[in-house]
Amino acid sequence: MAERKKLYEGKAKILYATEDPAVLVTYFKDDATAFNAQKRGTIANKGAINNAVSTHLFKLLESKGIVTHWIKSPNDREMWVKPVTIVPLEVVVRNLAAGSLCRQTGMELGTALTPPLVEFYYKNDDLGDPLLTRDRIRAMNIASDETVAQLDQMARHINQVLTDFFNGCSITLVDFKLEFGTLVDGTLVLADEISPDTCRLWNQNETDKARRVMDKDRFRQDLGDVESGYQQVLDRILAHTN
After folding, report:
1. Residue 75 belongs to what domain range?
2. Does 17 have pLDDT greater than 70?
3. Which of 3, 45, 52, 139 has the most crowded CB, counting CB atoms within 10 A?
4. 0.85 exceeded by pTM
């Protein structure tokens, strides 16, 4: 795995090709961004924490029948993954109202959503990743109705597995973002990462609205102790897994 060519560098990760066409390497960075990269910073050890969290959660989901792009995580910063063609939709699952949902609808922070809300956003930074209806997805020819239905079904399954797991860690899974891709044989799989960068996670042992936050909202909202929030998530996952 010595020969590598950078294929893509995003806000939080770098993707490399290897001499094996069936294996790519994702390198997790400490860089942090928010508000479509209008706010930038660094979170110490974030890359290693997010890699570890994602690794444990991908392994959990694989054990529950969710196919992912994960192969192995040989060190604290790198994850080996299968090449996929990314579906240009970000799938957001919401269990409680927070973030843009509250801003756009006036719903009170923390309002329970039953059943959970599944939303689709166009993966396009230039357009600000807009929220799409299913009719717009069809009109834009982004994905077939069958694929959208499969994304919805997989997202709800993932949500149930993760909600149950995080409850065992005394963490509330408020909402989270997923990305999917297709393998060379057309199989739809979970890709990207699942981490405090992509999830809203609240400490169930803390009632204070600011102190309960364990995710990137600590960075977005200048709450401080960002590294501590991320580390607590990993520590609880490890403790619950072991």
Report:
1. 5-81
2. yes
3. 52
4. yes
